[in-house]
Amino acid sequence: MPDTLMKFDAMRFSEMYRRAVAYWPKEIAIEDGLKVGKNGFRLSNLYDKFAEAETAAEADNPLVVLTIWCCFQAFHKESKRLCQEGLPVLRIEDVSPAEVEKRVADNLECGDWPLYKDRYENDLKAT
Description:
The chain is α+β, with helices and mostly antiparallel strands. The protein is built from 5 helices and 6 strands; from the N terminus they run αβαβββααβαβ. About 45% of the residues lie in helices and about 15% in strands. The longest helix has 23 residues, at about 60-85. The protein is elongated, with a radius of gyration of 15 Å.
């Protein structure tokens, strides 16, 4: 078991999400969105905000850092939809925490993340 795993407490999704979104701005300009290839979509400003959030959270619980990545995935999907509709701003509150949680659960199945699964609780199921 990695040393870093031992240093961090178990977390509930609601706390992971609350801490993760605190690293993101409430709104992100997405008018720079560009279709790339057949299915790709580049959102440079969104990526920059992700990089800033990830860097700021380096010392936080790894599950919060994972949630920041999962937020990026969900925000990217929603931003792509918004850009295709001609809307220039992503509002973080418009992306459901449940959408982020699905991505957390998926990501906990790959890479080194399965080591953290026993430290994660999906408390959205209880609400």
